[in-house]
Design brief:
By secondary structure, this protein is of the alpha/beta class. Helices cover about 45% and strands about 15% of the residues. Bound molecules: nicotinamide-adenine-dinucleotide.
Length: about 260
């Protein structure tokens, strides 16, 4: 257990997948949690409330679109007013789009850069002043193995995730003499709705079953041949939030079943 009682955690893109797993784990360790994201908001709120360990913990949601700086600013203000300024900021919202460079839609490029990269800059610049005032903070940016290595057809995603790791290092340097740390985590394949879409596309293209498509996807890149889970990643976030993580600064920590060891 990491004691986050009284701390406020903001997790972007936390109505589903990895973000929801992280939000639940932070709640289970005592934090107040502000969720963000689209889709089944009530379901996500219920799961995170269920994970709390004290009746005094606050759990709320803000629907800011992470591609819009003004909405991000509103969300940060709402967080400070309703729960308190964020002590733990997990930049997790992200989308994927797959196409060769010459067929990649410029609109999709802009959208992926905005959601997967620029939102991290906006939340961080807005969270840092109050973290500095309290001389404590944990910023965890959910990058990807695609922040470290590339795959074909993922130009915008790979560019954005490499950018997230660069931004993480700058933030870590600028906060190095404070109680604020900033790190990136780099998951390999995690079976979330984001990846399920790629499994379905692969099954359709190769006329195979979903199970064969899942195994095919894994065996190409991930030596463990097993998916990483949101719960595994949430434990890594929790570790980075703990006292033991206080001198981990500017890391890009992979949890990828061996993908980037190759
Ligand atoms: P997911 O699709 O399950 O969840 C994405 C979340 O982001 C959802 O809550 C969604 O509502 C939210 N979101 C999407 N667009 C948004 C927007 N404009 N504004 C606010 N919220 C928005 O995906 P996931 O697999 O859990 O991915 C989470 C993060 O992990 C992403 O940054 C992704 O790049 C990264 N990642 C995923 C994998 C994987 O294999 N699934 C691997 C490496 C990294």
């Amino acid at each position: 257990m990491t004691n986050l009682a009284g701390k406020v955690a903001l997790v972007t893109g936390s109505t589903s997948g990895i973000g929801l797993g992280i939000a639940r784990k932070l709640a289970a360790n005592g934090a107040h949690v502000l969720l963000n994201g689209f889709g089944d908001v009530d379901g996500a709120l219920a799961l995170v409330r269920e994970a709390t360990v004290s009746a005094s913990q606050k759990v709320a949601h803000h629907g800011a679109d992470m591609s819009r700086a003004a909405e991000i600013e509103q969300m940060m203000g709402y967080c400070a007013d309703a729960l308190g300024p964020a002590d733990v900021l997990v930049n997790n919202a992200g989308i994927q789009h797959v196409a060769p460079v010459e067929e990649f839609s410029p609109e999709k490029w802009d959208q992926i850069l905005a959601i997967n990269l620029s939102s991290t800059f906006h939340t961080t610049r807005l969270a840092l002043p109050s973290m500095r005032a309290r001389n404590w903070g944990r910023i965890v940016n959910v990058a990807s193995v695609h922040g470290l290595v590339a795959s074909a057809q993922k130009a915008a995603y790979v560019a954005a995730k490499h950018g997230v790791i660069g931004f993480t290092k700058v933030t870590a340097l600028e906060t190095a003499r404070t109680g604020i740390t900033c790190n990136a985590i780099c998951p390999g394949w995690v079976l979330t709705p984001l990846v399920q879409k790629q499994v379905e596309a692969r099954a359709a293209l190769q006329h195979t079953s979903l199970e064969d498509a899942r195994l095919g996807l894994l065996s190409e890149k991930q030596p463990s041949a097993e998916f990483v889970t949101p719960d595994d990643l949430a434990d890594l976030v929790l570790f980075l939030c703990s006292d033991a993580g206080r001198q981990i600064r500017g890391a890009a920590w992979n949890m990828d079943g061996g993908w980037t060891a190759q």
